[in-house]
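#structure-requests
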Amino acid sequence: MFDWKKPTVQMLGRWQPWHDGHQELFKRCVAKTGQVIIQVRDVQGASGGDGQEDNPFNWESVCKNIENGLIKDGYKRGLEYEIMLVPNITNITYGRGVGYVFEEEVFDKSITDISATKIRQKLREDGVLD
C-alpha cells in the first residue's frame, strides 16, 4: 500500500502521452525509495509553457496511459505509485535545502530520443488522435 509518510520520489510532468522514456525514468525513481508520486500537470487544451502547446490528453486518459504502461512491468497504482493532478506548474522554487534533493537522471540515446511530440504526430497520422 502506498504510504504517504514514507520517503517518496516525485515525478512532475505533462505525460502527453506516457511513453517508454517515462517508463525508464519511473524505474529509476521507484528504485530510490520504493514508491513514487506521479504528478500530472493540468494542461489539456492549454499551453504548458514555451513549446508545450500540444496537450490533447485529459486527466482520465493520462492516468489510464500511465497505469497501462506501468502494469506491463508489474507496478500497481496504490502500491508502488500514486497519481495526483496538480496545477499547470511551470516554475519550481525553493528557499533553502529542507530535506529534498533535485536530481537529473541521464539516459542513453535510445531513451533520450523518445519524443512525445513524435508519438502524438504518429497517433494523429493513424487517426487515433484528433
